[in-house]
From TrEMBL:
Domain of life: Bacteria
Gene3D superfamilies attached to this UniProt entry: 3.30.70.100
Descriptive protein name: Protein ydhR
Species this chain originates from: Photobacterium marinum
Classification via Pfam families: ydhR
């Protein structure tokens, strides 16, 4: 059963186009992670937060990615990492155009 993973953490930048430029290779590598279907990158310069919302094929692949990604972030000096794996209601999400049927 597919799962959503929400990750956020304290992040001091860069943001916007500078972030996109600096993290392009990382973004491309995420496409090759086992079970990853899609990711939406999240950022808030105002609140100094970074993160993402992911759709994974299963609980196991979401949890494995969360473990690996948390370790990678810690090596980058990022702390206060929060990751939550969610079930989601596909029927209601589709009414609101959520991309959960991809």
């Amino acid at each position: 059963m597919r799962k959503l993973l929400q990750v956020d953490f304290t992040y001091q930048g860069p943001f916007g186009s500078e972030m996109a430029s600096q993290l392009k290779e990382l973004a491309e590598s995420i496409n090759h992670e086992p079970g990853m279907i899609w990711k939406i990158w999240t950022e808030s310069a105002k609140d100094q937060l970074g993160g993402g919302i992911y759709l994974f094929e299963s609980e196991e692949t979401a949890q494995a990615y969360l473990k690996m990604h948390s370790e990678r972030l810690q090596k980058m000096g990022i702390t206060d990492i929060r990751g939550i794996v969610f079930d989601f209601n596909e029927s209601l999400s589709l009414i609101n155009k959520g991309p959960v049927n991809k």
